[in-house]
Amino acid sequence: MYNLLIADDEELEREALHLFVVQSETDAVSIAECVSGTELIKKCMEIRPDIIILDINMPGLNGLEALKKIRQADCRALVIISSAYDQFDYAVAAMQLGVINFLVKPVKKEVLIGALSKAKEMLKCGQNSPAALQSNETAKGLMPQSIQRIIDYLETNYNRQISLDDIAENCGCSKYHMSHIFRQHTGTTISCCLLDLRLKKAKELLETTARSIKEISAVTGFSDPNYFSLVFKKNTGISPVQYRSRQISAGITGITESNRKSL
Asked: In which band, very low, low, confident or very high, does the pLDDT at 228 lie, cut at 50, 70 and 90?
């Protein structure tokens, strides 16, 4: 038997998750709800939930910020992320906070029930101890070793041309098995994670250096600057040149006045 807390600012989403849990005939003692990160902290102190289904994008404190605070307050709940955001950074940050699953909206009933079943098994095995939930090293341990190796490999090699075969060889498993477990545990694909990481690094270079678009595309793993610009615009809505111009106009770049003239 366990207490469940659903934290999501979208009413329809909360209702759907609540209905899925009820229909699954799980042994939840109670199902509470909240709509913000601040309310999540308050609810956790009041009801001490065993399992939390948590959205990231909520008003005030977002889900991950609120999670940090409840961990500091010794909340031992096992957390399942349910979010429309499937970016690499969110998945990694969530797992480093001891999140046991990352589900991408819209969440299917069978997927949610599978995540809850995993959480219940972990409760039975005592994997909600303070040490397991508050230690980054232990939290990373909840992530399969192969997933962490993939993430480490991407962070080290994003700046060159790599394939799924290269990653699989480094991790010592088939690319099909590797792709399956990665998506299962992070809610996104290896290719999407690699692209998110490259775009993140490209934005940093656009903000902090005067390097040309051609140079930036090369050092972030894009073989062709035109393709880089196309992908960048598709994902951000603006071109790399427009992105840099907006950062300069806002005064939040590391580019000096003398460097601007060379752009």
From this structure: very high
Q: What span, in angstroms and rounded, lies between the C-alpha atoms of 212 and 165?
A: 31
In the 8-state DSSP scheme, what is residue 158?
A: T
Residues 121 and 2: beta-carbon distance below 8 Å: no
Distance (Å, whole) CA 42 – CA 110:
30
pTM for this entry: 0.56
The answer to which of 214-218, 227-231, 259-263 has the lowest mean pLDDT is 259-263
Q: How confident is the model at residue 88 (pLDDT cuts 50, 70, 90)?
A: low
Which one-letter DSSP state was computed for residue 220?
T
| Joined tokens for residue 11 | 């009413």
Residue by residue, DSSP assigns 222-235 as -S-HHHHHHHHHHH
Sign of CA dihedral 83, 129, 19, 108: positive
For 83, what's the count of Cα atoms within 13 Å in the CB-facing half-sphere?
25
Q: What separation in angstroms does the CA of 116 have from each of 5, 17, 100, 143, 144?
A: 12, 11, 10, 17, 18
CA distance 206 to 74: 40
Cβ pair 71, 133 in contact under 8 A: yes
How confident is the model over 46-61, as a mean pLDDT? 91
**Is the previous residue joined to 106 through a cis bond, with omega within 30 degrees of 0?**
yes
* Residue 3, beta-bridge partner list: 30
CA distance 174 to 78: 30
Q: Is the pLDDT of residue 253 over 80?
A: no
